[in-house]
Amino acid sequence: MLTQLEQRILDFIRDYIGDHEHAPTLSEIGQSLEISSKGTVHRYVQSLIEKGELEHVQRGWRGIRLASPTPTRSTTLPLVGRIAAGHPIEAIPGQEELNLSDMFVGRDRYALQIKGDSMIGVGILDGDLVIIEPRDRAEYGDIVVALIDEQEATLKRYKRYADGRVELSPENPDLQPMVFDPRRVRIQGILVGQLRTYQ
To answer: What sequence ranges are listed for the domain LexA repressor DNA-binding (predicted)?
Structure first.
């Protein structure tokens, strides 16, 4: 059973995640519900975690998610057929659905928005959203999120050579690969998907 305030906080978090696709901070929760003490908000959020309503899956309060998300918005689209990008063919309605959750949502997966044109050669453009699965290791040729010198994160193709050197390669002929001592590079995730909207 939840207290009245716990339910209000849970409802706010659920609505906020639905609107922003990430959790609010403690300050945002407190401001919305007119709770001046961040410690009070922390205590109630922690109680919701202990009661199994929320999960804390990443560092920081943005890493909170609903333990049992309420499907307030559909995560499926009708798959109505196939369409040619060359010669026209008839798009025939079908009965299948495309489940976006199955494609992109996995435990701890997260999205990043691309800034720049270093990966245009593989169709990743400025403003695109990429879906990342957290990993601390990568295979030769994977597209990874790499943290350089614990300061700068970048999305590049990963290559590691027999002598230990790590190469982070852009997919843009106008840019040069970056080569590092492996101690300077920490893999944070692997590219698993991409999203782009046109409106």
So the answer is: 2-58
